[in-house]
Specification:
Helix content: under 10%
Strand content: over 45%
Largest sheet: 12 strands, mixed
Number of helices: 1
Order of helices and strands: HEEEEEEEEEEEEEEEE
Number of strands: 16
């Protein structure tokens, strides 16, 4: 009888170990970011003289930049590079991820051999990046000092997941210290 109880216990342990694991970066993403920086690159692509390039760097509660612009704390950092704008700063409008490099577009996220580009989210714990989630596509609206994002990524199971978040407040200029 003890042998059967032991086998049953082992089988139950194996079954419970087979449950689907959901990594932390797919749960609990912030709905609201508390600070945002706008990095301006100007007309940095010679082949695209009609558009300028900016980037957005957003931080959730619990994260901040120190005097050397190093991220400190625990939270999430949403970064979107290569946003194409008609002038030199982000202007009111709707922006969509595309590879056309036209005004009001931004590049989708890509992972190049483990290095994220375009748009991605860093999950940071105690000043250290513990996970990176590349965002495949999406859009955002900028209006009246607010940003509303609808972004898409591949979840741990290969399916497409939606992430909606926002920021309200002034976009701070990125200052190299």
């Amino acid at each position: 009888m003890k042998k059967y109880i032991l086998i049953l216990g082992f089988v139950l342990l194996c079954i419970s170990a087979c449950r689907r694991y959901q990594p932390a970066h797919y749960r609990g993403l912030p709905q609201q970011y508390t600070s945002a920086y706008q990095q301006t690159y100007g007309h940095c692509y010679d082949s695209l003289p009609e558009v300028a390039v900016v980037a957005l760097d957003l931080y959730s509660e619990g994260l901040d930049l120190d005097k050397n612009n190093v991220i400190r704390g625990t939270g999430y950092n949403l970064y979107i590079s290569d946003i194409f704008v008609p002038d030199s700063l982000l202007v009111t409008g709707e922006y969509k991820s595309e590879t056309t490099a036209e005004a009001f577009t931004f590049l989708p996220g890509k992972d190049y051999e483990g290095t994220p580009h375009g748009m991605y989210i860093l999950n940071i714990e105690k000043d250290k990046v513990i996970q990176i989630q590349v965002l495949d596509s999406g859009s955002f609206v900028y209006r009246n000092d607010s940003l509303l994002f609808t972004l898409y990524y591949r979840n741990a199971y290969g399916g497409k997941a939606t992430y909606q978040c926002s920021f309200t407040g002034s976009l701070l200029p990125w200052q190299k210290k």
